[in-house]
Amino acid sequence: MIGVIFMKKLIKLIILLPLIFPLMLIQIGETHGNEKDENRYKIVIGDDINYPPYSYIDSNGNPTGFNIELARAVGRAMGYDVEIRLDEWSNIREALETGEIDAISGMFYSKEREMSYSFSTKHTITNGDIFTQNNMEISSIEDLYGKQVVVQRSDIVSEYLQGLDLNIELIEVPTVYEALKLIEDEVYQYAGLLKLPGLYSIRENNFKNLKAQDLELAPQDYSMAVKKGNEDLLMLLNGGLHVLKATGEYEEIYDAWLSIYEPKTLTATMRRYRGLLAIVGLTFITLIIMNLMLKHIVDRRTKELQNANQILFKNQEELRIVNGEMEAAIEEAIAMEEELRKQYNYLMESEHKLKTSESKNRAIIDALPDIVFTISEDGIFLDRQANENNDMLLSREKIVDKKLEDIFPLDIAYLGYQKIKSALQTGELQSFEFQLEERKDEFYEIRIVKSRENQVIGITRNITTDRLYKREIEYLSYHDHLTGLYNRRFFDERLKKLDTESNYPLCIIMADVNGLKLVNDSFGHLMGDNLLKKFSEILKNICIKDEVICRIGGDEFVILIPRMDKVEAEDLINRIKHRCEGEKIGSVELSISFGWDIKRHAEEDIHEVFNKAENYMYKRKLFEGPSMRGKTIKTILNTLHEKNQRENEHSRRVSELCTEFAKALSLSEREVEELRTVGLLHDIGKISINEDILNKPGKLTKEEFDEIKRHPEIGYRILSTVNDMADMADFVLCHHERWDGKGYPRGLKENEIPVQARMIAIVDAYDAMISNRSYRAGMTYAEAVEELVRNSGTQFDPHLVIIFVEKVINKEV
């Protein structure tokens, strides 16, 4: 083991000798020049007075630590006396800048500091860590988000944590000891400190409930430093460090002060003996290379022998094959006579089958709409077969023995020659489509296949129907069937094609029809479709240049316009808005929300531009939509009352009675107004019920009554689209629920039903009983009251019935 260490050090000294030799000459020259002076040349090196285990004052009042021992060792190696001075860090840096000291034994490297100092070869790498109590675990630095962390003031870890975007609150203290003490005493949970000073303080102060989390924060090179320009001293320091590392003294100092804080891992051991390992590795690699070379030579010779054996085996196999072929030839000659006899019989049979086949082929041709040609390689028609009703081309007598150019225009004839040539050369099916001058509205297809070495079969068919159907399919695949505009598929494809620099600025305009769902729910999808068609017609009339108009969703449209800037885009939108003003479908106004954005540069993502336009449109819809929905609600109500005057009068009376009912319950003014409005709107869902059912004079059938029972849900959907009417929508939904749970649509009972809905149910039933109908006369007030009381506790809330009868009806009577 001692011999290995000696050899390792000797190799390092030999490698470093060219670097150290000039430094030794400088040292000898300086020593010779001062040989009359009894004292050797002295270097003053400073460091932080409170930075254990790197630099500090021991219990005897002497400077000590890793940095101090390393500085003294460098001086010994280079033949200089070293004087150590320890002070506050700021004072030490000021002393270096004023020349009171020559160097600092330990300073973190940074680009900013390099402007004022020159740094030696790094002698250590130091990093920070998070210290906690033993029972705590941190998986990453992100776990400290929003936490309080104790740090040493002006420390590099403090700067690192402050630069993170983790909302960390830093608690600054002067020393590492004070920071760890606060964690030990459970005043705080986390401390961010340099790892080795932290571990040193834990050990020296016998802290039992602290540990490092091994997060390795802000790793930094740690070097000796001199004032900028003092390159001679820097060279001496670097030389000393290299000598210490070559002789192993550096590792002894490192092990004595710092290695006790490192985990004893394989990586650390390999780092210490990396030189020796390198020599062993090179030797091992050399042996591997030699082994591979020998293996390659053996493999090559083995392969040559295998090839020779394969050639010999192949020759033997060929000889066996030749012998077999000769035997087979003899047997074939014997069998040939037998085969010739069979062939004669086969020919006779084939002639019979050919005659039968010709009859079948004739029947097939008569049944097909195609014309079959036999054409020579020179383009001469040899035959023509078709049924008698096919008048697509000339008769057989006028086409046989004619050339292609005698029958077809030159462009079609030339294409025919090319396809005949390809079919004969490749043996593959060839085809092309064509039109005839005398039949411009019809399309034909000819398929050509090789039949003999110098002949082809051509089959021609009228494909007009197929072509028109294909065109229709293509149109439908790229167009919206309702509006005739382009659809989402076309939009996606065209957006990619237009996304080129020649089209910039590329403008995307989004448009959304406000209240479409409300219109569909209230007036039916036919009314909504007419709104969409009207808006589509407006877009077609205004966008007549390069605009691409697409309907990409139920109520969403998009316009793509290449080479359009902001001013032009706003002008186009204003023109569309102006055209939409005052447009109505029936009694429903057309209301559109717009949004837009422009791609001006190639580096912009076109999909992001689309999203911005869409988001802008939705923002506009938030402001414009509610107003439109409110107008639509009024339109729905007016339309319902125009359809059925009885509903108008009934809603007005229910609204007035609900107002009195709310006042009798001493509700707030807002609640009174809310009930008044709900009374007016409670049957708004009947807008979607067939008018014949609403106005039917006789008793409704079960199916008709089931249709009527849909109106609370329809009313709920209509009112829930308006933000201010969300609560009222619930009251409308529940106004036909019963106290005993047998109502509709949800079967709620008792207090599960909103009190407002229970009140409307009483008022609605009371007004229906006292109103005259075509099939019966209205009840008297007394009869209606008796009916309410009789159904109290089953259909109606018994408490509310008493209040309604005593404080509303009796008051009215």
From TrEMBL:
Pfam families: GGDEF (PF00990), HD_5 (PF13487), SBP_bac_3 (PF00497). Signal peptide: none annotated. Residues 625-813 form the HD-GYP domain. The chain crosses the membrane at residues 273-294. InterPro entries: GGDEF_dom, HD/PDEase_dom, HD_GYP_dom, Nucleotide_cyclase, PAS-like_dom_sf, Rev_trsase/Diguanyl_cyclase, Solute-binding_3/MltF_N. Keywords: Membrane, Transmembrane, Transmembrane helix. PROSITE patterns: GGDEF, HD_GYP. Residues 504-639 form the GGDEF domain. It comes from the Bacteria. NCBIfam families: GGDEF. This is Diguanylate cyclase (GGDEF) domain-containing protein. It comes from Alkaliphilus peptidifermentans DSM 18978.
